[in-house]
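Re-run with default settings, no changes from the original entry. Doing this only to confirm the output is reproducible before filing.
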Amino acid sequence: MRVPLSWLREYVDLPATETGRDVQAKLISAGLEVETVEQLGAGLTGPLVVGKVLTIEELTDFKKPIRFCTVDVGQANGTGEPQEIICGARNFAAGDKVVVALPGAVLPGDFRIAERKTYGRVSRGMICSGDELGMGDDGTHGIIVLPPELEIGIDATKLLELYDEVLDIAVTPDRGYCLSMRGVARETATAYGLPLRDPALLDVPAPNSYGYPVRVTDPIGCDRFTARTVVGLQPEARSPIWLRRRLQKAGMRPISLAVDVTNYVMLELGQPLHAYDRGRLDGPIGVRRAEAGEKITTLDGTVRVLDAADLVITDNRGPIGIAGVMGGANTEIADPDIDPETGIVTGSAEVVIEAAHFDAISIARTARRHKLSSEASKRFERGVDPQAAAAAAQRCVDLLVLLAGGTAEAGVTEISAPSAPRTITMPANHPDKVAGVDYGRETVVRRLQEVGCDVYGQDELVVTVPSWRPDLNAPNDLAEEVIRLEGYENLPSTLPRPPAGRGLTESQRVHRRVGRALAGAGYVEALNYPFIGEQALDNLGLDADDARRRLVKLVNPLSDEEPALRTTLLPGLLGALRRNDSRGSHDLALFETGLVFRPEGQPGVAVRLPVDRRPTDEEIAGVNAVLPAQPRRAAVVLAGAREQAGWWGKGRPSDWADAVEAGRTVAAEAGVELIISADQHAPWHPGRCAAFHVEVDGEKVLVGHAGELHPRVVKAFGLPARACAMEIDLDLLEKANEGPLKAPRISSFPVATQDVALVVAGNVPAADVEAALTEGAGELLESIRLFDVYTGDQLDEGTKSLAYALKFRAPDRTLTVDEATTARDAAVALASERTGAVLRGA
């Protein structure tokens, strides 16, 4: 809502020194979102005057039509002589009154006017258009032609109200009453503690039986309908400058007098209106639901097929308007038409004014159904004051009589459904409890009265809500009004006190530890949307029967390309990797922890639970039954350098081993040791893929994979070469660690280290060798670490050497060399038995 400050001052006596910025600060403090304050006329200086075009000489010696004009500006130029001006516009004629910028004037954009020679003549000024003066859209985009009765030489800046400040307010859905000057003025008056001159306080004649006939067959969709008729309108009457300028400042384009008046009253009072040409109406006006398949041509020239839920305005021929959204083309006010031979102006001389109140939900659904958002629908769907309809119709009639010379007919049609005032019962200290501030009853009552409520009672208040505030429905709504008017900035800052004995669950602790560990290892967290499409799964190279292809589809997805919930974290992370690499960040290590959605069994459809009562246990169980499993995962992706080169030495590119180590890091934070083995699993390279297993209840359970991505996957996603990834199931890791915590063994005795190098076949996993060494070494083994892998000419083809560092320690004594050697030999013996390992050099 654009609010000109000059217009606002008509309803509130603001101090003369108050600027738009001051008003903005007050309204923001009161809870309105005033986004900007636009300074109209900034950079504009005179002299800017009214002139009369005396002569026009067409210059035809140039590529485009040029006119040499003489303009009478009175004594504004200091001589009284006609002003000679070159102009290229053609929408004015000799005798017209125009706006003239004289030499020395500066127009918006620092456009300075001076005498200059052009097209072989001297131009001493400029005939101005609305765009050149920064006036906004006037529908003509040409020279401003002023009314003929204006005096020559007067200041055009005051005439056109070029200097002003306009507040641009982002009106939230619960503040629909602020989509009007009346609503914003009420908030301004309350913020400043000043009285309000309510523009809706008009003398309205009582309804009678002589008005234009109206039939409302849907009182729920339309609970109030007022119709007034004005006859004898002068077709040639134009909207006055002040009316056109206010519409322009408010962001609307002037069209014709009747339409401009209805728009003006809508902006002033917040009540949308519609004007019908009575000569084009056929019979009574009706309000009903549309019949499925009915058609209407709206004012924008579009033929629309109506839905049975649409509320329509009709006459004997059928629909003539979509109620609360847009009128029909067959009853619109005709533009004035001038007969070129007689000069007689014809047009709509009799109009019927409609001021109705429609159901907000119905209008909102109709506007969205037809993708037709109008100024009227924006107001109706947020809530319009039903008591303002009669006043708005009267205000429209008064303006048409004043500006178009019309006559208001005595007939007044008003149809209204019976309704009772809305009341809310609230303890007087309820706002105090909500805000944590002791306001007191007097303050609560005063603030509620300022927003238009009637308040009765002492300790228990009975509050009658004003008709223009449909958003006030509960005690908390009233408390919010008190709090915002008292000032949000005056609320104390207090931290909530959590009850004792509560904290993070073990799952939450593991989740946080994993995130901190990965961040500490150099990974950057990247959060992605949990949506996926079939194309991403194709890019991963998943088989048709892969469980990750069983998706949970969304009924109303944000994007048709990603209509389902993700079954793996990798597509989102790989997309983030690609974007960062394309923008110049080539050394990347990203991670994400989050839920994936894995449907089990036959996919189901969730039923819609009722909102008018608490769902039954059976209904809740039915919804839960169709929910997919939602395990929590952790995943990483890597590309580029893992270690940077520098004075300390050469760098190192990231590879599959880094992805495997990330899996170990995650498992360590969950208190679990991974069993790692070679595997083939999409989307990883078949020769560089590791599977992660853990022991759960004595059985090996697959929990994830890591390694280098398949080249086809790298190409499909547009990733850097040799990109790597890891994904692991945090829920399974947590399940594997169930049971009592084991404290680490601490000994004050020294450690005995034994190194052993074993030669095994190339296809034997190092994890199997390590497991055999660990079991064979027995209880004295404290740790084992693989520190070298060798393949080369010194070994037989198809074999490899694995070198391990074994640390032995006893809790109660210092080990002898013989004890450590015996334990090492036992470890080697079991490894040889299980994996065929042979001591290197033996």
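The chain has a mean pLDDT of 90. Residues 2-41+165-192 form a domain with the Phenylalanyl-tRNA Synthetase; Chain B, domain 1 fold (CATH 3.30.56.10).
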